[in-house]
Amino acid sequence: MEFAGFGHINLTVSDYDACVRFYDRVMRHLGMRPYFDFPQFSRAWFVDEYMFVIGHAAPAGDRFSQWRTGLHHLSFRARSRAEVDSFHALLKEIGAKVVHGAEEGPFWPGYYSVLCEDPDGTRIEMNYIPREGWDAVAKAADLVK
Question: Is the pTM for the entire model greater than 0.85?
Answer without folding.
Answer: no
